[in-house]
Amino acid sequence: MVIGTFGFWTMASFSSSQLKNKEVQSAIQQAEEAYKNGNIAHAVALMDTLLQKFPQNIEVLVHFGKYAMLMAGQVSNTNLFEAGQWANRSYSLLNQACALDSSYVLARFYRGVLGANAPEFLGWLDQGIRDLEYVETQFQRKALPPEKISPLELYYHLATAYRKKKAVSQLKNALEQLVRYAPDSEFGKNAKEELTRMETPSTQAMRSLPASNEVQQWIEKGKALMAQNRIREGLEAYREAIKGDSTNLALLLSIADLVRDKASQGYGHFIYEDQTARSLLAFEMVRIFDQAVRLAPQNPEVRLWRGLIHVMMPFFVNKLEQGIEDLTWVYEHASSDSLKAEALYWLGFAYRQKSLSYWNKVAMEYQNTQAFQRLLNAMAPPVVRVDVDTLQKPVLVVEFDLGFQDVMAPQTAVWIEDHRGRHVKTLYVSGFSGFVKEKQVVLLDWAQQSQFEGAEAVTGASIDVGHYCFAWNCTDTNGKKVKPGRYTVQIEVSYWPSMQYEHVMVPIDLGEKNAKSISKGKRIPFVKVQYFFQ
User: Fold this and answer.
1) Is the predicted pLDDT of residue 102 greater than 70, yes or no?
2) How is the beta sheet containing 516-519 ordered, strand by strand?
3) Residue 9 lies in a domain
4) Which of 14, 191, 385, 412 is the residue whose CA sits 20 to 30 A from 516?
């Protein structure tokens, strides 16, 4: 086993499987030899050729996915865009393998490794954890041949995933397993050190430190008053508790949690009695975190909380600029990737709030201008629908949402494949991808499957966040009616510059009266495919 780090990516190499198909087995063995000799690009080329001959072979998909993952790791230090493309390619291949057989352990393992080690913004971490936990279950049942996946590999990547997820108890268990299976290795020793560090109390753990009896009495009184929706009196009790130990950061954070819990209940019945209650809770949160920042100005978690409170409630507390300053400080000084990511997310939220304040000014003061009309057009979410009654039957209607927004509109393709995975017809492709074709491939799966057949006829302007609908008249690219049977609607979307990507596949049975399939993704949060016979 070899575990190596390439920029953002941590990859592993594993032995090839025994295959029944001699041609497939021979090609995979050649690819493995090429990889061992340091030529990952050749291994990828071999698998690419093999996939064209065996597009539904699960072993081909899995091994191609593995080498594409390794390719992402190799180029990540020099070309992040290319690394992202390879990672997306790998994830798509492994997804296809898992769709063919969700119990196939190697497919789940490689997809888990990729999800655990890829940048968190790709959104693969949760699925990666589920995959690796499935492999762990098979390992514990002794249903996993040890020559394929070692416990060191498994628990190393599980620990990586849990560490990102801040799943403390699960991380501790994975580290303990690393120590158990490889106590004298570098990984085992590092696991021991991390377990020791985990015993040191963190800022989060400080919230549960005991307070003095008098202070605790004030806290309990505040809780009771809040439960009765006596907001002003409850806040006064919390202030008395803080006065009793005003330099105790743990106490401040604990009371901040209590106030935030009440504020998070939204507009409850207590608003009828006191219409300023929400404002009071917001201002109290600001006061508490102002004091906490004075006590611990270099604490990234404290600065993060004050920052997000300011940007979440600018109407109440009017401290948006202070929030931006705090969040910028956290991004520049925090050592944790998760804190940096939170700071960036809330900075984006803050600047969006600022932009809306300018648009609100247009709406309030300049309603008789063209700018106001452009504002209304920009705010209206795109919704495209099809009146099924006007369509000639039989027809397949594809509805989907694009739920992620980047600086630029994404590249998107919608196409149909038959039960053998062969391209039948493209229904839509974004302008850049449709016209540039093989000169610069962005939608890797669509390009490979369609070979750009019929692309120009369905190339259109790029679509962005919104609801879209396309109708397929059940013909192939040449206009010939297709036979009844199982088909798959494919939707692929790729964003720039965020490198977000998703490929959703929805099966449907043509010929089955009013057949309907629904699927959900992350960047494509909703897809509905419905066949209308008459």
Assistant:
1) yes
2) 466-472, 395-402, 526-532, 516-519
3) yes
4) 412
Q: Domain check: are 265 and 405 in the same one?
A: no
pLDDT tens-digit profile of 107-120? Answer: 999 999 999 988 77
- Cα 366 to Cα 255: distance, rounded to the nearest angstrom: 45
pLDDT tens-digit series, residues 380-415: 767 777 788 888 889 999 999 998 888 788 999 999
312 within some domain: no
Residue 5: CB atoms within 10 Å:
12
In a domain, 302, yes or no: no
The CATH number for 417's domain is 2.60.40.4070
Tokens 């009765």 correspond to what residue? 228
Give me the amino acid identity at 304. Answer: L
Residue type, 387: D
The per-residue DSSP string of 192-217 comes to: HHHHHHHTS--HHHHTT----HHHHH
Question: How is residue 140 written in tokens?
Answer: 């514990």
Strands 411-418 and 395-402: unpaired
Claim to verify: residue 211 and residue 119 sit in the same structural domain: no
Residue 305 domain-assigned (yes or no): no
Cα(145)–Cα(109) distance, integer angstroms: 13
What range does the domain containing 37 cover? Answer: 2-198
Report angle CA 92, 96, 101 to the nearest 5 degrees: 145
The answer to whether residues 251 and 356 belong to one domain is no
HEC string for 367-413: CCCHHHHHHHHHHCCCECCCCHHHCCCCEEEEEEEECCCCCCCCEEE
As for how many domains the chain has, the answer is 4
Place of tokens 């090839």: 16
Question: Do 217 and 332 belong together in one domain?
Answer: no
